[in-house]
């Protein structure tokens, strides 16, 4: 008979004593449990003791978290959190440097526990930490432990960041601005400032004023990867907290300092592999930079704006040396207007008498005009060639420059997600973005020439305009998916992907689809499916056995804390636990927490997960919802919550967990993998039938022969 759910069998250790094996009654008050444990070891004053996990983060057991204790857990009898907080509070005030350093080191470790943190803060412990930082001159190990303890205590959100004193903040800023400081101190100081920036406008302004962009750029140029990462994190926090005008000024300054070229050379192409966190920050920097185009993209052209009209006229004047503006010309106003309208028509404007009307649509708004002007000024030869070449073509066969530019700008905005909010988890950035100033405009210059090239290859007319731009969109997206490292490489590849190549790719995809729709092939597919689904199930379980590194993401910021989860080789237990940065694949023995697969009841995804409900807000990021899943275990009381690092990991983990629960795999990745495997298997099976058309119905069975005289008689063979 199984034990009742409110009883768990555990071991309790104490230094110098034989461990106790007890059955913990979850309905029994914790104080009574401690009294029984202390009595067994003849220890007085049970109220001075507490239970604590031996492994992992060594969390204290309280009435609120005791439900998480599992069968087989190993606990330790230790000093209670209030006693430990009192001891360390005294220790960090000691005049003995060794005692003080050891106390601060222990404080930094224990402050991860919410119960201890509450006790220490209730004793005004933060005030003592402020005193050590504000009054102390140490810049080594002791200070590093102090700042680490402060970070851990603030992580629990018992105290607002806005309550920090000006003296404390200035001291933290000084560690960032000093040169002769321990690298770990600078890393922690940068992390503290990064946490302060989003909490209030006053703190943002203070940090922005005290920590200059030049100083952050200096930190970005060091060889210490962690210091580089923390500097980038603070830079991103400042950019995200700034107003649009401030952000634009900051990005202009960073451009002057050639930050893109530095990132391209020293971070993206460094000898060290790029971590997930840095990849995310580069994605955000790219997104913030591209979103500077949003204002122009959403602004329609004002026909009464002198500046905008001059930009529009400059397009015409660059392309045509108009007779109406030649020195000494005495054309009438009507004649001059007629010539201008004719030239605007040659430029490809739909409304040639009033071309400003073409730019009233927003998006792409004025961004399209900016791109056209940039193209005409920075590549005047290519611009003149485009316009004049199409001016001399037959009617209906000319490629309209202005109309194409407007539509192309819109396509580029959609592909590059201009105007969309930054994702909290995305890491997809384009390496070539950091290799080029004026990236968007330079990309436009390449792509508008691609439009003209594709137009000629398709022998298009005005009626084919949408088809041509659809092909161009496909050329751009297919090339960007290859992640070219420079615009030159992008240009080479996108031009190589001409219209005939696109047709070949489409035809291959279409033929593949058609050949897989024949009735006999569909029947074969169905027969192969069970075997291939089993193969996918095995692959998913193997992936769970290898394990994955997950990040803890709070509502305030991306956390640095990591945890690892993996399935045991016998597929019976899920092991998980916190790990340090840089640990790729911890051994299963080092993961202290476990969930028996037999106790798993349900898999929740997206909005159903408890951790997405807790953090739900008006601006809940869509991508976090798409990556969230939870395992419900025991009697539907407890959940293990995940936020996958990528959509790929989300699909593999949810599929694997569904397999463990005996349910169908439901992810889109499963369908993709099944299609790929079916396609490969079908091609192998149908190799002998190449170039032979497969009939929809099987051929008729012939009638039996009238006699069997054709049968060979073996009895006469040996005579």
From TrEMBL:
Pfam families: ELMO_ARM (PF11841), ELMO_CED12 (PF04727), PH_12 (PF16457). Signal peptide: none annotated. One of its GO terms (biological process) is phagocytosis. Residues 307-480 form the ELMO domain. GO terms for molecular function: SH3 domain binding. Keywords: Apoptosis, Phagocytosis, SH3-binding. Involved in cytoskeletal rearrangements required for phagocytosis of apoptotic cells and cell motility. Acts in association with DOCK1 and CRK. Was initially proposed to be required in complex with DOCK1 to activate Rac Rho small GTPases. May enhance the guanine nucleotide exchange factor (GEF) activity of DOCK1. This is ELMO3 protein. The lineage of its organism: Eukaryota, Metazoa, Chordata, Craniata, Vertebrata.
